[in-house]
Amino acid sequence: MAKTQTRPSHRCTECGWTTVRWVGRCGECQAWGSVVEVGAPRLAEVRASAPTKRATRIKDVDAQAAARVKTGVSELDRVLGDGLVPGAVVLLAGEPGVGKSTLLLEVAAQWAKAGRTTLYVTGEESAAQVRLRAGRTNALADDLYLAAETDLGTVLGHIEDIRPSLLVVDSVQTVGTAEADGSPGGVTQVREVTGALVRVAKQRGMAVIIIGHVTKDGNIAGPRLLEHLVDVVLAFEGDRHSGFRMVRGTKNRFGPSDEVGCFEMAEEGIVEVPDPSGLFTSRHEEQVPGTCVTVTMEGRRPLLAELQALVGSSSLQLPRRTMHGVDPGRLAMVLAVLDRRAKVKLSDKDVYVSTVGGARVADPSADLAAAIAVASSALNISMTERCIAIGEVGLAGELRRVPGLHRRLAEAARLGFTEAVVPSDSHAAEQLSMNRSGMLIRAVPTLADALCALNMTSRNRPN
């Protein structure tokens, strides 16, 4: 007998994937709670209705109604685009313990100290616990109101009563509503709560900052729709073993989406770091082999980073390759190019590479600095004092041009560096501009030429 073909009865609203039975997670796009039954009752035809307010010419709209307001935390204002736009909804996500609540409590306090009414809603701590942290970090203000609530309706009631100009919700995963299915933190609940906060923010012109959790993979927990609902998405990054923190913009409807702000966790709370370059470099009384400084770009911000390397004889059949703060794949490629193209033999050596200050360097422009640091340690030759190296290393041993070279060199010159090794295909105008400030530019085409320019060749190895 011929088998009857079963028709798919459920469809994913995100990607259109179909299945014969309901599942909680889409098998194609891996979205949670997006699979619905096919053939559900269609919406009735919607008839046109008279608008309550006539459409306005775009030239007649008052632009001052969306004028930015500074938060009082300059590093956060830098990421937001010079302040908060009234009615904007900002999502701040980060790992547990990175300092999200501490940062936004400071923002709420600075906002309130300027005479603006602020409401801080916490669903993870009691009011007394938040008050204790506010006293420790000096985040107390007369116009700062605190509410420990987990019900959306009660939160909206507090907004009606206090009428704040800034609302902070810590966090969206702890707030729920009886109007939606599931428990707080679920896909449906997060979508409903965020949608309600977005609507009230636009109606009142009230800025809203929402704290969001992240998954073990580092992605924002909840539906992907959450990032589309809000106006600004910020990622709060940092190593719990280091006090350095970084706020990175990943979406911004009102400003640049590639800007970063730097902070440092201290005993008195979170402190702004307007000039973070000194955090990622170390001072040596005399030059030692195995160190090299580069300038990376975090968004639009040039930051100095020091890479240190240690090369030693190995007693193992497979020598160790240990690294911290750098991309293992890129470093393995750099070591292979050093061995093959620059004749720095590392096949029987243990190689250890690390950054200073817990910095994470993912910029390809740090390839040349990593290669010079490893070669300096392997050949026991010190790097030239007050010299930086910027360039991407190719598999053929060539040095590739990196973007923003002028800004990188300007930052190095400001911090007292007098010499730089860069790829030779860089714009001559940039090189001449830096020569006017007294900085010596060594433009070289290959990695081997860079080592020769710094007097790091295998023939200089001490006996």
TrEMBL record:
GO cellular component: a single term: cytosol
Keywords for the protein's UniProt record, in alphabetical order: ATP-binding, DNA damage, DNA repair, DNA-binding, Hydrolase, Metal-binding, Nucleotide-binding, Stress response, Zinc, Zinc-finger
Protein name: DNA repair protein RadA
Gene designation: radA
Described function: Plays a role in repairing double-strand DNA breaks, probably involving stabilizing or processing branched DNA or blocked replication forks. DNA-dependent ATPase involved in processing of recombination intermediates, plays a role in repairing DNA breaks. Stimulates the branch migration of RecA-mediated strand transfer reactions, allowing the 3' invading strand to extend heteroduplex DNA faster. Binds ssDNA in the presence of ADP but not other nucleotides, has ATPase activity that is stimulated by ssDNA and various branched DNA structures, but inhibited by SSB. Does not have RecA's homology-searching function.
Domain of life assignment: Bacteria
Start and end residues of each stretch annotated as Lon-protease-like: 350-463
Motif RadA KNRFG motif per UniProt: ranges: 251-255
Pfam families attached to this UniProt entry: AAA_25, ChlI, Zn_ribbon_LapB
Domain remark from Swiss-Prot or TrEMBL: The middle region has homology to RecA with ATPase motifs including the RadA KNRFG motif, while the C-terminus is homologous to Lon protease.
Ligand binding (ATP): 94-101
Cited Gene3D superfamilies: 3.30.230.10, P-loop containing nucleotide triphosphate hydrolases
GO terms (BP aspect): recombinational repair
GO molecular function per UniProt: ATP binding; ATP-dependent DNA damage sensor activity; damaged DNA binding; hydrolase activity; zinc ion binding
Residue ranges annotated for the RecA family profile domain, each copy included: 65-214
Family label: Belongs to the RecA family. RadA subfamily.
